Amino acid sequence: MFLGAVLFTAGCGPAWRPKQARFEVTGCEAMAGVPAPETWRWSAEAEPVLTPGPAGAWDSVDALNPSVVWVSGVLYNFYSGFDGRAWRTGLATSTDGRRWEKAAAPVLSPAPETWEGDYIAANGSALHNGIQFVYWYQAGRPARIGLARSPDGRQWRKHPTPVLEPGPRGTWDEEAVADPYVIRCGRIYYMYFLGQNRRGLQRLGLARSTDLIQWQKHQSNPLLDTGGPGTFDERGLGEPAVFRAAGEFYMIYTGRDHAENRRLGAARSGDGVRWRRAPLAAPISGDRLWNARVVCDPTVLVWGGRLLMWFGGGDVASPDENLHGRIGLATLALQ
User: Fold this and answer.
1) Do residues 205 and 48 touch, judged by C-beta distance below 8 A?
2) Mean pLDDT of the chain, nearest integer
């Protein structure tokens, strides 16, 4: 889910850029058997694997933004649901990645009396660190990134303040930060995220942390910029999914064109910082009725000898909601 255009305002003035950290992404375990993207041949399920709930349900309008974690033989899908008023985070579990059992109620909702406001506590990135589930999520207006922790994926404790804030006036992420995707490499966590400036330009950046809470943004942000006129990502980038394989880092991300159609693109990097677009422009095309206008929100996992990618899709071109959003599955055989 991209940020809506209402999040930016016009303005002018001198830019002030704070001192930021310079680092490389190191110590990341590689996903075994994943080939270079030139050879990717995704096989997508014809129908979505997770759909909105019935009328009146908390996820009745859109079900998008999957973040899938495998723990003790069970797949946990922390996804975003929209009821026409607010976005919340729900939980669905599965043993095969196709058939999902939803929890009856959302596991995370916005708290209006806090910095989160009443619109969103969703669009997040989940990990299990061997002790607990950790979930970074988007909330607030302007959008910021929060943190919640859970022993079981159902009962969550939120950190009281945002853990990643927009940059100061004049920076590339001055208006909002969103779309976190976190990978763990040894003791260090690396977060790829969307930043938006006052003109509504959305690009991708990187931050790192050793304690889940304090994050250092990279000096070279933004790391990946929009494409040229006529490209699938000419209006913005978001929703990165990053993994290491075959000696490099790979990113699958969402791009917006001038008509708000969205498709997935790929990029590669030797160090997790300097990225170049991969020749494969769109790992999954919108070739089904249910995802004819939007393919977005990737999350990836190597499981059962395959690289699995769950993704969002919709048949309405919109940057944020009311897409008839559903979640699909694509696989890449590794053997």
Assistant:
1) no
2) 90
Q: Is residue 11 part of a domain?
A: no
The continuous run of DSSP H or E covering 236 comes out as strand 236-245
CA atoms within 13 A on the CB side of 268: 14
Residue 57: predicted pLDDT: 97
The answer to whether residue 37 is domain-embedded is no
Let me know: does 156 contact 135? Beta carbons within 8 Å: yes
Q: For 167-222, what is each residue's pLDDT tens digit? A: 999 999 999 999 999 999 999 999 999 999 999 999 999 999 999 999 999 999 99
Residue 176 CA to residue 139 CA, distance in Å, equals 10
Work out the average pLDDT over 298-303: 94
CB burial string 192-217: b at 16+ within 10 A, e below? bbbbbbbebbbbbbbbbbeebeebeb
Position 16 pLDDT exceeds 50: no
Structure confidence by residue, pLDDT tens digits, 146-171: 999 999 999 999 999 999 999 999 99
Is 259:43 a contact under the CB 8 Å cutoff?
A: no
User: Is the confidence at residue 3, as pLDDT, over 80?
Assistant: no
Quick check: is 7 in a domain?
no
146 and 116 Cβ atoms separated by less than 8 Å:
yes
Distance from C-alpha of 208 to C-alpha of 191, rounded to nearest angstrom = 6
CATH of the domain at 295: 2.115.10.20
Gap between the terminal Cα atoms of the chain: 33
Nearest-angstrom CA–CA distance, 100 and 88: 18
Q: Is residue 56 part of a domain?
A: yes
Domains: count for the chain: 1
- Report the distance separating Cα 94 and Cα 89, nearest Å: 17
Q: Which domain holds residue 300?
A: 43-333
Q: How far apart are CA 165 and CA 174, in angstroms?
A: 9
